[in-house]
Amino acid sequence: MKEYQSHGMGINSVALSEVLKHRVEKVFSDPGREYNETYDYMRNYPHKVTTLHPTVEGCSNIEEWCYKLGHAPFSQMRSCSVKWKHRPMEKYMKPPCTVHIGIAYDERHRVKVYEKNTRRGKFYYSYPLVEQGITRAQCVEIIHEAGLQAPPKSGCWFCPQQSKASWWRLGRQHPDLFWRAVAIDDLSDKVKLWEGTQAVRGLRALWPPQTVFEEEEGWECQLCMII
After folding, report:
1. DSSP of 153-194, one letter per residue?
2. 9 Cβ neighbours under 8 A, 6+ residues apart
3. What is the DSSP letter of 179?
4. pTM of whole model > 0.70?
5. Cis (ω within 30 of 0) for the bond into 209?
6. What is the DSSP letter of 223?
7. Over its length of 227 residues, how does the chain's per-residue pLDDT go in tens digits?
8. What are phi and psi of 196, to 5 degrees?
9. What would the pLDDT profile of 87-141 be if each residue is shown by its tens digit?
10. Contact 75, 46 (CB under 8 A)
11. DSSP 129
12. CB neighbour list of residue 109: distance below 8 Å, 6 or more residues apart
């Protein structure tokens, strides 16, 4: 049976690739609006990764798709992850097959999200990091032991699952992208990337970004294969 790794170019994915000894095909579905740092990391990543560039409803990237829809991605629905991650990967992969997912042991509650959507008989999901009790901190150690730098957080820069600290980080490090995210947030009064405050509705409430804040771990979308 063919084996694949769902590679999100994040810490867990890079560590899982080392755990699997690169014996399976690594597949990354690119929505076209990952963080710039992720694309920089990909260019220097020493191992082969099959990168998919899906077209969804005539749109070549997820930002363009939001403008076509007239609103930001729904934070509680799976449309963006299904259309830009899951479906392109399932279309590429040849079932029946095993798909290895990089969920760390201390994030094992995320397994339930995938198990609810497992298509038995076609795609069998495997969680080697959970099975071996490898935590996210240990993933970083595995990466360093392999002689690699730990990758930055992966995900779309306007992912609605981001923490407040991550939005502030985006505003400080990439103000141009922050304001593009605000433009997406402003498309609809009902669907917001960030709920904001009573005084300022939406993502604009987080500008200007704080100069000092505690970065939060684990904000990655639990419905996305961005791990």
Report:
1. PPSBTT-TT--HHHHHHHHHH-HHHHHHHHHHHTT-SSS-SS
2. 28, 34, 38, 41, 42, 45, 49, 151, 154
3. H
4. yes
5. no
6. T
7. 899 999 999 999 999 999 999 899 999 999 999 999 999 999 999 999 999 999 999 999 999 999 999 999 987 667 898 899 989 999 999 999 999 999 999 999 888 766 655 566 788 899 999 999 999 999 999 999 999 999 998 889 999 988 889 999 999 999 999 999 999 999 999 999 998 877 788 999 999 999 877 666 555 555 565 44
8. 80, -155
9. 999 999 999 999 999 999 999 988 876 665 556 678 889 999 999 999 999 999 9
10. no
11. H
12. none
Domains and CATH numbers, the chain: 2-145 (3.40.50.620)
Side chain identity at 93, as an amino acid letter?
M
Is residue 52 within 8 Å of residue 27, measured between CB atoms?
yes
CB atoms within 10 A of CB 90: 16
Contact between residue 225 and residue 6 where contact means Cβ atoms under 8 Å apart: yes
Coil, strand or helix: which one is 29? strand
Rounded Cα distance between 158 and 185, Å, is 9
> DSSP letter string over 62-82?
HHHHHHHHTSPPPTTS-HHHI
Within 8 A by CB and 6+ apart from 171, the residues are 178, 206, 207, 208, 209
